[in-house]
Amino acid sequence: MYSNSEIKRYIPLVKMISKMFGEKCEVVLHDFSNPQHSIIEIENGNVTGRKIGDSITDFALSVLRKDGYGKKKEDTIVNYRTKTRDGKILKSSTFFIRDNKKEIVGCMCINFDLTEFLMLKKFIEEFCINIDLGKEKIEEGVEVFTSDVNEILNDIIKKAIYKIGKPISLMKKSDKLRVVKTVDEKGGFLIKGAIDELASEICVSRYTIYNYLDELKINKKKVMT
User: Fold this and answer.
1) Among 64, 13, 7, 3, which Cα is nearest to 30's?
2) Is 57 a member of any domain?
3) Which tens digit of pLDDT belongs to each residue from 128-157?
4) How many other CB atoms sit within 10 Å of the CB of residue 209?
């Protein structure tokens, strides 16, 4: 399975790092001789949902193509932010492996799931808020100046999701209903394509968004009567 001895020697290091930092720390070893099935070792693959035999990432492919990262052709990139398809926020680092000809032949990646830590951070920040009664209450929200209406829509959706305080993968129907309600109240659905964009962001169908909007209308009528 291991076609390159230069890469194989990193397997013990992969196992050691994963054991040290626990189940939230995914460590992956890639062999670039077969990009479509580059993962030859992975520990705690539940973080990104990958397994041995899965493919190279778009980021790694780009670095391989350019023979290094950035203008300085660096082999090590530390503490950059990544995100899984189901909404987990990760802190990642990558080390590219070169052979005796100085060619990149693989890489080792560390992906640490920060999601619960960020949720805790948000809770602590909200818990520590105090109000100065001697000052006027400041209205929530900041005006966004842009020439692209899609940027406005994206900003509305991101803020609505952030208010829930949990990743999309952990959201219940009630949480997603609150996201739709916030986007609606901010006028997001006045922008063309908002239904499809929001559906994609919170991992539901466009028809589910329509159902949520209908449910919100019914609830509003009940409150008014």
Assistant:
1) 7
2) yes
3) 776 555 544 434 445 555 557 788 888 889
4) 23
